[in-house]
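cron nightly-structures :: item 1 of 1
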Amino acid sequence: MSISMLLSMAASACPDRVAFGPRADGRSYAQLERDAEAGATWLRRRSPGSVVFLGQNSPELPLLLFAGAAAGVPVAPLNYRLPAPVLRDLIGRLPAPVVIAGAGYRDAAARAVTGTDWEVLGAQDWIEAARALAPGSGAETDAGSAAVLLFTSGTTAEPKCVLVRHENLLSYVLGTVELAAAGESDCALVSVPPYHVAGVGSALTNVYAGRRMVYLPDFSPRSWLDLVRSEAVTSAMVVPTMLARIVDYLDGAPADCPSLAALAYGGARMPLPVLEKALRAFPSTAFVNAYGLTETSSTISILGPEDHRKALDAGDAAARARLASVGRPISGVDVQVRAPDGAVVGAGEEGELWVRGGQVSGEYQGAGSALDADGWFPTRDLAWLDGDGYLFLRGRSDDTIIRGGENVAPAEVEDALLTHPAVAETAVIGLPDDEWGQRLVAVVVAREGTAVDPAELKAHVRSLLRGSRTPDEIVFVAELPRTPTGKIIRRTLADTVRGNG
């Protein structure tokens, strides 16, 4: 049993419903299933060890996912923004690859494979060649085999290749979505990158729900809002940087997107000021914070719509504080917060987050499984649970700054800085210091047209936090180094600081 079952069930339940594109002339679920079967036949005849997808998010990704699943070949979507030498290195880490390039990325793929014997095809050429073949069949794919190979974002170290099995993805989808649950008028806007676990997850969950999908390959606030309005989009997912740009573009005006019933966000930490502005800009939209990792096959906890609105409007400090949480674990996922000695800590105590469940892979190509003997995966995220089971993240354990023997979470200082009206973005890192061990350095992007003195920002933080949390140094830059999903690439920030010194 493989994830191809999800498409088969959706195509059986709603064959004539549009899967992709405009309602009037998009491709139906029956057509998607036929193309996936043809693609699987082509793959069986080539027998590659993996299929690389290089391109923007489009209907080509789910087509490849389901074709690869039916053929028993794992799919590896790669970051199309990477330079050719980096792509060549990543492709070289995959078993016997064949490369499928999306529209506009055939030349980039060719450059990446120069000097190798890897086969490259344009996505359209691939599917046309597949459609010309006589239908074929093969052995059923084992649920325990690899479905997707995803490289981590590499924000603190070199990217690792996560092996996600069919059984992991099936556990996630079947545990969170009902078959053909979408209404006839439902439409999802997909704008997250295909090489992120959210891109894979959205493809699978939307198909299983029988939902129509439209794509926005090149994000801009205006084009995103225009597409939501013109296609009557009912649900969408964004990463925090996208939502921040939408909020800035609106500049206090209402979004005017009456069809948008639900908006999910995730992939990186959401600054509270941005979220509060977004909730006011989309007053009738249900917001969902979806927290997950590549190693967990996407979402493992959710902060739902009711918690968002209650927190925004409540005079209850505890309810408002939950706006900074990632909610409660979803069904089928267990969580523990553990001290450094491995002991499980109580409510309100901070430690490392460990998770367990059928959707948790925790496995890396070439390195094996990171699960412990009882199936628990160490996320390396620092976290704590409140008395009602709400999960709060404090950042990556790698990011913790130890200043004068005291642990400082960058997120705490960053949130304080973001409440200053002149601060657009910020990241806090620790750099070596002879006296304190590490000193706090705040890298700040100032809002356009504003000027602010570093001493003023330090005083602002000191008024909100303890003195030990006050940055020792403020460095202004034009932009922060980020992944396409909005995560700050902290391993390059020290070089950024030195370059501005």
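cron nightly-structures :: done
The CA atoms of residues 216 and 223 lie 8 Å apart.
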